[in-house]
Fold:
Amino acid sequence: MNTTFTVYFEDPFWVGMIQRFDGNRLSVCKVTFGAEPTDAEIYAFLLKHFNDLQFTKPIKAEEKKRADSPKRRMRNAKKMLDQKGVGTKSQQALKKQYEESKAERKAVSKEKREEDARRLFELKQKKKKEKHRGH
Structure:
């Protein structure tokens, strides 16, 4: 297993991206820092919180192939951008995790909303029956 940690500036915060490679499988975790972290702060963070980090589900990482010429590299880069969109494999994995959690949140909130509506409907029915009970 190979792990890399990259820190970069994503306006307005400093962000750390942890990539875990296990054979040809890649899983990613994104950590947001406030101000620019020092090396000591990063080291302390990793020691303290590494086991608590939530990585994405592993995705298949393609092997990098060496292009023959600069023109061929340009053509291949253009093809890859047209097919997959802009972003690294890690960014795409984070986006996929975000979309999955978004779908889960939507399902849970829809279920809660329907439950509340059903509860209110039953309450109205009960109230209506109590109103006409003596007649």
Notes: Residues 89-131 form the longest helix (43 residues). Helices lie at 39-49, 70-84, 89-131. Residues 101 and 107 are 10 Å apart (CA to CA). The chain has one domain: 2-131.
